[in-house]
Amino acid sequence: MHDSLFFQVPNSTFAPTVDGLYYFIFWISVFFLTLITSLMIIFVVKYRRVEGVEAQPSPGHNTLLELGWSILPAFLVLIIFGWGFAGYVDMRSPPEEAYEINVTASMWQWNFRYPTGAVSGELHIPAQKPVKLIMQSKDVIHSLFIPAFRVKQDVVPGRYTGVWFEALEPGTFDILCAEYCGQQHSDMLSKVVVHNNDPSKTDLNNDPNFETWLEDASDPIKDNEPLYESGKRITEMLGCVNCHSSDGSKKVGPSFKGSFGTTRNLQGGKTVTVDENYIRQSILDPNSQVAQGFDPKMPSFKGTIKDEWIDAVIAYFKHLKKE
Ligand code: HEC
Ligand SMILES: [Cu+2]
């Protein structure tokens, strides 16, 4: 399957209804646009005023034709209503057994929390299982939009809103904010990672199945590995790697590689040494010290990242320094 002109690859159980209805309306519109425009042009030419020819009085009306063009569109509109309403009711009625994930939207970041206590900046879900999102906003109105699933739902401060879906195939798909929410609205991007839901299948690309991912994310610090490995896992889990590389290349933010122990020029003219405290503060309150040459685009991870996880991330910085 490929992205089409109007849609991303469909990947939820809602997609057939949404796409089907969309194309139904689209082709009806194309049909009537062509029919009406052509007839108009033909009549304009055919019945134009010609010198020396008297205008004829109207021959009366055609009851059959008039009933036809009233009743047929009425049916079309009712079909569209019925089809759309059935789809809407389905989208508004999450199944009892849906897996629940809490979502917090804030300027300009998505935060996903799982029943086990795991948190992540990207949404991880099992394939072929209904998932329900219970969403709230910390500040202004945002809107969770997952084009591949054909769902979009506003996230409103002061109340919960919800959305549910069932993904079909494993893969990675876009999440966007579809409600203008301030300066960095267009950066409020994330991904939904649909995991293989079949424990007997270990994915070809080394993609863990959902249960494995959830176990790691619930407790990313493993006793039997060096702390920096856990730190690396945490930077992947929380989506740090979307903005920071570990190979020295510049992305949205400075690379993690080789920065520990170096001197950083800050906006405003101060300089600091990249040490434990600087890293900790950069994670919890990034805008309090913005590195020169970069935009203050990093969201705060206060409340998302646990203190022990910061230790591990710092260990990872130190490890990258040595490498
Ligand atoms: C949306 C992009 C984005 C994400 C996600 C992000 N950062 Fe950043 N980060 C930045 C930018 C931009 C800067 C530079 C500006 C600043 O200092 O605030 C930065 C700066 C930093 C710094 C200071 C680095 C230096 O060399 O001066 C650290 C440390 C850091 N980020 C760690 C993290 C960690 C850990 C995570 C994940 C928990 C993370 N960042 C997630 C964009 C991001
Ligand atoms: Cu937003």
Defining key terms:
33% helix; Helix Hairpins; five-stranded mixed β-sheet; 6 helices; alpha+beta; Cytochrome Bc1 Complex, Chain D, domain 2; binds copper (II) ion; Immunoglobulin-like; 323 residues; binds heme C
H/E series: HHEEEEEEEEEEHHEEHH
How many domain units? 3
Main β-sheet: number of strands, strand sense, barrel status? Answer: 5 strands, mixed
- The Rg value, from CA coordinates, equals 28 Å
- Overall outline: elongated
The number of helices is 6
The unreliable regions are none
Strand order of the largest sheet: 3-2-1-5-8
Distance between the termini: 41 Å
Structure overview:
A hairpin with a 5-residue loop joins strand 11 and strand 12. Helix 1 (15-46) packs antiparallel against helix 2 (63-92) and helix 4 (227-237) packs across helix 6. By secondary structure, this protein is α+β, with helices and mostly antiparallel strands. It has helices at residues 15-46, 63-92, 210-218, 227-237, 276-284, 307-322; strands spanning 99-106, 109-113, 119-120, 123-126, 130-137, 142-146, 151-155, 161-166, 171-177, 190-195, 263-265, 271-273. A 5-stranded mixed β-sheet has the order 3-2-1-5-8, with no helix packed on it. It has a 5-stranded mixed β-sheet with strand order 4-10-9-6-7. A two-stranded antiparallel sheet has the order 11-12. The chain starts with 14 loop residues before the first helix and ends with a helix. Bound molecules: heme C and copper (II) ion.
